[in-house]
Design brief:
Elements lengths: L3 E5 L4 H12 L3 E6 L9 E5 L5 H7 L7 E4 L8 H20 L6 E5 L3 H4 L28 H16 L2 E7 L2 E2 L9 H15 L3 E2 L4 H5 L1 E2 L2 E2 H13 L6 E5 L5 E2 H12 L3 E2 L8 H4 L4 H11 L6 H4 L2 H8 L10 H5 L8 H14 L5
Parallel strand pairs: 1-2, 1-4, 2-3, 4-5, 5-6, 6-11, 7-10, 8-13
Antiparallel strand pairs: 9-12
Length: 355
Amino acid sequence: MDRIALVVGATGITGSNLAQELVAQGWKTYGLARHPKIEKSDVFPVKADLLDPEDLMRALETVYPTHIFFSTWMRQDSETANIEVNSRMVRNLLDVLSKKNTVEHVALVTGLKHYLGPFEAYVGAGVFPNTPIREEQPRLQYPNFYYAQEDEIYRAADRDGFTWSIHRPHTVIGHAIGNLMNLGVTLAVYASICKETGKKMLWPGSEAQWRGLSDVTDSNILAQQLIWAATNKAAKNMAFNIVNGDVFRWNWMWGRIAQYFGVESEGFNGTVTPLADQLANESQTWQDIVKKYGLHDHELFELTSPWHTDLDLGRPIEVMVDMANSRKLGFGAYQNTEDSFIKLFEQLRLERVIP
């Protein structure tokens, strides 16, 4: 118990799965969130508002973490607002904990927008990198809240003497309810609606994503890398890409997902059909499904994040990444991506989230 973890964003895909892995490895683990509905009893919940320093001080009064894992953000209406709010959350937390002088390492989870630009640039306005995307690529000229969060960590590390690591997953596949960026659960709910209504699963994204190579990040692989970097001296003060380790094309994976749910699928037909449009009028359909199959009573848009799935699948280029930094240091974890999806779907069925 000499390692005490504070997982910030403990109810999200990344944070909840990381907290479980930390507990399994014997860490004393605190889970911080605005509404910490943490089911695992071995994770100590911390209810706090990262934008309120006084609230943070009260909430963390008896918490003395050695390792911080920061895996949350708040979506704003513009990248300028994203920068202001999300950098302030990091700054407030590190300033409050600075007085305790117990922090040895801070890990920050960001993502591929580091290389591709913010949401405003996602739809093709930007100049995109060659793939596979490499960790050596410099920052873009676009304003980006990921950069601002990193800078807050660098500033605090210089002040307080802790080490740091930055982790850049691709789309994260894992279990979480009510998460803003949840492609796996979104596709599971969409496929379930298609099956119930007799519709085909229509590919919602671009031709480039349909035909190009891609990869994703299983939440467990991400948790493994976070803990590995936090406890490996050679991995200190570095940035790491993190994906499953395999690649696929959506023109194969889309059919495999449809096959799992027993529905027909249709690929790119020259027209983008966003999930946001396909699901816009399906709230009552989902409530009917919930009632018919005795599922947990979650609203459609509590479970799904079609806007984010559309951004991921609508990119105008193929996206896959290189993991040179961690591979060279011996991190060799691997996860088959089809298995990641199926494991998630089975868990959702077991928990009566989908029929």
